[in-house]
């Protein structure tokens, strides 16, 4: 009698741990494309756009920081609400709607300036700060709900990494889509005045929103709402208090690795266009071609990572491999003179590989940390995102505040290069963050074993 009951329980537990189908992975993966394509525009072009329309580098950095701070605090608040009330798809849809409405205003010119008939730089800065904050609140709602959903869709560690890899692969598609849109817009129209510049970026924003919203609809129609009930044997499922995570060493280790990984990706992305044009003095096409190479390589690697069976040791190994590659890339960027700037194309291949390895494994470490403790999955994702947003915002503010003050360093008699803010932002900062991330990961103890079975299927029928 006992044996038959045990067999029956094992059969009921199988759906929660068996691998997901490719269609389920696809539907989930496209759900973050609106966030990804707008974030790519945010980090790649915001500082460039704001300085082109007349804001000082410091004011442009303030706009960026205001958005990051709003995003950071929103992730904590929204994560707590999701843990309390659930409804991932509702939060995702509401956040996507707010992103779609507000993003065009970030690149759409200063509406309060027109309303008040003012050319004040203070009013202009405050206007962009306001829309940047609104956009980032919506972005946070979509991000936290989408990231936390991974842990409630399946308990299979390999499927969780597959979902993360799919999300990262479509993130690369979104980034490539943005650069394709930008290439067309920049090729069709020329920016000779402030109004022309605002029109260019407004069209980029509208096109990005349209493409991203199409994929949001596919995600909402194809993905089922996850259940958040788990059999804890002792009690029914309840929300896990924050203090539970703060007592775990692994929480701080995963938080540090995720924070450093986001610093690597976001800071390098923000200064890539500046570096290839200002420091290396490459052709204008390079500011679209080199990012495209990076994202194509990241896409290929992300797709390949979906086919690998995962465990804690393998996550650590692949993250360390990506970190070591980035260290060498950072050193190469620091020492790369203008005379051989074509080598940047080769470096971009390795940057793309390293980005995919680090991001996929860093996000997957969150799933290992959460395990089957689904009652706090949104808080974990939200709190780690809070650290990510605040650190990136502060780092970019500090770097941008010193833009244009770097000395010229003579390397040899005929050729010289700048040890500029852009060179530090693209080379030194990612290399140092990667080194620290590798060290933290090496001493991390990951356990991908799922001990607690679910009492019902994770997806609503």
TrEMBL record:
<feature type="transmembrane region" description="Helical">
    <location>
        <begin position="25"/>
        <end position="48"/>
    </location>
</feature>
<dbReference type="InterPro" id="IPR036259">
    <property type="entry name" value="MFS_trans_sf"/>
</dbReference>
<protein>
    <recommendedName>
        <fullName>Major facilitator superfamily (MFS) profile domain-containing protein</fullName>
    </recommendedName>
</protein>
<keyword id="KW-1133">Transmembrane helix</keyword>
<dbReference type="InterPro" id="IPR039672">
    <property type="entry name" value="MFS_2"/>
</dbReference>
<dbReference type="GO" id="GO:0005886">
    <property type="term" value="C:plasma membrane"/>
</dbReference>
<feature type="transmembrane region" description="Helical">
    <location>
        <begin position="203"/>
        <end position="223"/>
    </location>
</feature>
<feature type="transmembrane region" description="Helical">
    <location>
        <begin position="317"/>
        <end position="337"/>
    </location>
</feature>
<feature type="transmembrane region" description="Helical">
    <location>
        <begin position="424"/>
        <end position="444"/>
    </location>
</feature>
<dbReference type="Pfam" id="PF13347">
    <property type="entry name" value="MFS_2"/>
</dbReference>
<dbReference type="GO" id="GO:0015293">
    <property type="term" value="F:symporter activity"/>
</dbReference>
<feature type="transmembrane region" description="Helical">
    <location>
        <begin position="90"/>
        <end position="111"/>
    </location>
</feature>
<comment type="similarity">
    <text>Belongs to the major facilitator superfamily.</text>
</comment>
<feature type="transmembrane region" description="Helical">
    <location>
        <begin position="60"/>
        <end position="78"/>
    </location>
</feature>
<keyword id="KW-0812">Transmembrane</keyword>
<feature type="transmembrane region" description="Helical">
    <location>
        <begin position="249"/>
        <end position="276"/>
    </location>
</feature>
<feature type="transmembrane region" description="Helical">
    <location>
        <begin position="288"/>
        <end position="305"/>
    </location>
</feature>
<dbReference type="GO" id="GO:0008643">
    <property type="term" value="P:carbohydrate transport"/>
</dbReference>
<feature type="transmembrane region" description="Helical">
    <location>
        <begin position="169"/>
        <end position="191"/>
    </location>
</feature>
<feature type="transmembrane region" description="Helical">
    <location>
        <begin position="343"/>
        <end position="365"/>
    </location>
</feature>
<keyword id="KW-0472">Membrane</keyword>
